[in-house]
Design a protein that fits this description.
Elements (H helix, E strand, L loop, with lengths): L8 H8 L10 H10 L13 H17 L10 H17 L1 H11 L9 H5 L2 H6 L8 H14 L5 E4 L2 E4 L6 H8 L3 H12 L13 H11 L2 E2 L1 H8 L3 H9 L7 E2 L5 E4 H11 L13 E3 H8 L3 H11 L3 E3 L9 E4 H18 L3
Antiparallel strand pairs: 1-2, 3-5, 4-5, 6-8, 7-8
Helix pairs in contact: 2-4, 3-4, 9-11, 12-13, 16-17
């Protein structure tokens, strides 16, 4: 007959650590006796103020027994002594053992950047004592562990000590660091480097790869963002590119292109009149995109025809991109006819 031995496994693991037995002096009590007797063994903990060592041992022990989020209230005397025993074993071994302990019981948090949550209830035990000089050695080790384990950009004060975290490797953080657009970066990674469909803001990417791409992608907008900047659809942008009115700053392949905001503004200045519309109100002019849809003509062909007709377009700079470009009613018929004639000559529908 087989028996399920799984409930015994935690007890067997705990037995290897020589657990403290009630009625016997704890590891912390042994240490306190040594300190009071003037014994100094040149250990790291010997330079920590005794009351700070006692408090830290109790917090670490509670963390080990109850977890970082465990409630520290309602602890019995025997439980407190057991916590202190476990915590003292860690402290006496020094900073390296403390970091190993934290690595076991805290790790790197849920998302790798929120050490406040990862420390749980133990966070406040040290945070609100960080300005006390006696807690400086303990806080220094905790801050060093956070800096070696958690991701955050630049420096920030951790338990009162300025600390630099592990540089984030997520795509969003790398794009922000280099000042490049995330959408166009994702497209380039997928098209040229074989990244999967699921590549997104939280994906971890090789920082050197993004650093190499950054000069090419600096301040560039992809076709979708360029269309949004101009206030038109992507199809209109592709028509402008196809007819040679809008030239990309960078072309990665036949479909993937990049534009700077300056290039888009230069296009508007070159192809759209900046003059004021004649008096008479809105009734005398119609948005160019409305004219294009009503007459089944590309916006790009209307812009080209406007140069031949002359005086047909007006641009309201208060509106975004091509949404502020209108056609004068007095020139509309001639403009449409010219555009269709040019399209016919070019073999366009």
């Amino acid at each position: 007959m087989q028996h399920d031995l799984s409930p015994l496994i935690p007890k067997l693991v705990a037995a290897r650590a020589a657990p403290w037995q009630p009625g016997r002096p704890t590891k912390l009590e042994h240490y306190i006796t040594e300190r009071l007797d003037g014994v100094h063994s040149r250990r790291w903990i010997d330079d920590v103020q005794l009351d700070v060592a006692i408090h830290t041992a109790e917090v670490f022990g509670a963390m080990a027994m109850r977890g970082p989020q465990g409630d520290l209230k309602g602890i019995s005397v025997d439980e407190r002594r057991e916590h202190a025993h476990l915590g003292a074993e860690v402290l006496i071994k020094g900073p390296a053992a403390i970091k190993d302990f934290l690595r076991t019981h805290i790790g790197h948090g849920r998302r790798g950047n929120d050490y406040h949550t990862a420390f749980g209830r133990a966070f406040n035990e040290f945070y609100f004592r960080k300005d006390q000089p006696a807690y400086r050695p303990i806080c220094a080790v905790l801050a060093e562990y956070v800096g070696e384990t958690f991701r955050f950009t630049g420096q920030e004060k951790v338990f009162g000590i300025r600390t630099r975290g592990v540089e984030p490797k997520t795509l969003r953080s790398l794009c922000n660091r280099h000042g490049i657009g995330m959408k166009i970066t994702v497209q380039v990674l997928k098209a040229q480097y074989g990244f999967g469909v699921g590549t997104g803001a939280s994906s971890e990417v090789d920082p050197d790869l993004i650093a190499d791409l950054a000069p090419k992608l600096k301040d560039l907008l992809n076709a979708q963002d360029a269309a949004r900047h101009l206030g038109v659809s992507v199809d209109v942008v592709r028509g402008l590119i196809g007819d040679g009115l809008l030239v990309p700053d960078y072309r990665f392949n036949d479909r993937m292109v990049g534009f700077s905001a300056a290039t888009l503004e230069s296009f508007l200045d070159d192809w759209c009149s900046a003059g004021k519309p004649p008096s008479g109100g809105q009734a005398i002019r119609t948005p160019i995109q409305t004219v294009a849809r009503a007459n089944r003509v590309r916006v790009s062909r209307l812009l080209i025809a406007a140069r031949a007709v002359g005086g047909a377009l007006y641009r309201d700079r208060r509106k975004r991109g091509l949404t502020g470009v209108t056609v004068s009613h007095s020139c509309m018929a001639a403009l449409v006819e010219q555009a269709k004639t040019d399209a016919g000559k070019a073999g366009l529908s």
